[in-house]
Amino acid sequence: MSSTEPKPQLLVYYRDPRRAQTVRDIVQARFPDLTIHTASTPEEAEPVLDKVEIITGWGVPPALLSKAKRLRWFHKLAAGVDDVVLSGALPPGVILTRTDGRVFARRMAEYVIAYILAFCQDVRRILAQQARREWKPFLTATAAGRTLGVAGVGDIGQEVARLASALGMRVVGWRRSQGHVEGVERMYAGRDELPAFLREADFVALVLPLTPETRGLFDAQAFAAMKPGAYLINVGRGAVVDEQALLDALRSGRLAGAALDVFAQEPLPPDHPLWSMDNVYVTPHISGPTVPEEVCRPLLENLDRYLRGEPLAKQVALDRGY
User: Fold this and answer.
1) Contact assessment for residue 235 and residue 112, using Cβ atoms and an 8 Å cutoff
2) What local confidence, expressed as pLDDT, does residue 1 receive?
3) Alpha-carbon distance values, 87 to 16, 81, 143, 196, 315 (Å)
4) What is 294-309 written as a DSSP string?
5) Residue 76 sits in which domain range?
6) Does the active-site annotation cover 285?
7) In this structure, is residue 319 part of a structural domain?
8) 124 and 87: one domain?
9) E strand or H helix that includes residue 82
10) 3-class DSSP state for residue 41?
11) Where are the beta strands (DSSP E) in the chain?
């Protein structure tokens, strides 16, 4: 883009007005000549939709994108873009990019490891005994030597594998296509190899995007293929799991426990049975927090490219959904 051309206008959309302003300040500090608008509701965004060429943010209503007639690029400040892709609301020709998983990888990998150790150390039992002031020693387990299955071996899944390997765990992976990944002893690929992958794992970590292929992937058949007494940890997308099948597997003892950070419906309804299960940890989608200074880095790098007329990084392949 030449210096004589008018600079594109950008809309930062965040449901939290404070977050919207924070992102605006971060971008404006790097690009002081850009005109940047903020909005936290569709009504606030409406007056500038015919002016903006770029939209970024989190929680952007997909329908808003189709109303932005000058829109050329949408950058989501998150790794998951299923809401945009599956809605079909992105106008033809508009580039979709995302904040890649590397930004969230360490935090999300630590979440997975934390709950592996919580299950091994039987933290629930410890807390229950403490509440009753009971001194009853018992034998805990070790993570070393156990097998972790990582479903979804992208940036985040690779970091999970790296940390698990450092604990002495054996790691197997499952994803759409084959390929070598450091720290993963064996890679399974495709739907046909999912049962064999599940049979190996003492713990299964889900780090999968939500696509038409992964929706409901972990159903009764998948849970039946898992080792009896295995554990499930989901930090990917809630709708990848058939929640009724999960409840059945937990109640029957097929699964020994689960740590769940994502759900098909969020917030999880107060009357949902998962809340009251002794072998389940429910957390409110906190494994990959959106720290503005961190999630904005890929946006700033791509803005540099965009203004220079260069191809953007981390473009989403709409046919794959990631």
Assistant:
1) yes
2) 55
3) 23, 10, 40, 33, 18
4) HHHHHHHHHHHHHHHT
5) 9-102+290-308
6) yes
7) no
8) no
9) helix 82-87
10) coil
11) 9-14, 35-39, 52-58, 73-76, 95-98, 147-151, 170-175, 186-189, 203-206, 230-234, 255-260, 280-282
CATH number at residue 41: 3.40.50.720
**pLDDT, the chain, mean:** 96
Q: How many Cβ atoms sit within 10 Å of the Cβ of residue 300?
A: 13
Residues 67 and 116 in one domain: no
| Below-70 pLDDT ranges, the chain | 1-4
Residue 318 lies in a domain: no
Within this chain, do residues 211 and 189 fall inside the same structural domain, yes or no? yes
Of the candidates 125, 285, 297, 320, the residue annotated as catalytic is 285
Domain total of the chain: 2
Q: Annotated catalytic residue: which of 146, 175, 237, 254?
A: 237
Spatial contact of 232 and 262, defined as CB atoms under 8 Å apart: no
| 155 shares a domain with 89 | no
- The encoded tokens of residue 248 equal 């059945």
Active-site residue flag, 37: no
